[in-house]
Amino acid sequence: MALGLKYFRFIHPAFCNYLAALTRPVSDITLKTVSGRQHDHRRYMAYSTTAVRHFATKKAKAKGKGQSQTRVNINIALVEDIINLEEVDEEMKSVIEALKDNFNKTLNIRTSPGSLDHITVVTADGKLTLNQISQISMKSPQLILVNMASFPECTAAAIKAIRESGMNLNPEVEGTLIRVPIPIVTREHREMLVKLAKQNTNKAKDSLRRVRTNAMNKLKKSKDKTSEDTIRLIEKQISQMADDTVAELDRHLAVKTKELLG
User: Fold this and answer.
1) 44-48, 112-116, 161-165: the lowest-pLDDT one
2) Which of 77, 80, 157, 202 is the most buried (most CB within 10 A)?
3) Could you give the CA distance from residue 192 to residue 145 in angstroms, rounded to a whole number?
């Protein structure tokens, strides 16, 4: 048969291939799946081939893993009757701003009077910032003074708040005057601040998850009057917004970590 094939060189190549395939063992003939475009029909075609096993290389896996999915860009005005995506976007952005504000006010290598201003103190009148109930000043590069003369009844609460601020501060009290020694900048101190930065970032991500969940719950209420395709598209948009926000939070953490470690 193989000898006879050379006499078919003037016949259509496809027919020659077919004849050649008939002479090969069944194990050497593979089935190739070809997906149709319109109705996702599948058809199978036989090809003469040798049995080859392919293994994915690490490089190929990494390339596939790194491929980004198609992004969604919905016109907010077209879906405002279903959900206010602009409001969702603002809530997610506020999470980023809150983290940046936290980094700037509480996580600094050099403690300054301003870094104590927004420490929250729990008082009988509710939660107040330290600068609302005291006068904060810098006596020396190594010492901050917090004068509680105007609200002496809040002194104990202020000491507790300063100690639990996560800034590695150990306040000392003399009557209504709180002395706050500034800690020496050591490697351990820097690493502790980085740890606090990571904790605050994780808290920000928790807040972001709540924003995303609330948005998804609002969207579910419109499922009866909105097509599944539209709902699915909006869900993807919300998830995409959340993913972008997480990436931004991680970027700010990376910048802060580099700053703190020096």
Assistant:
1) 44-48
2) 157
3) 24
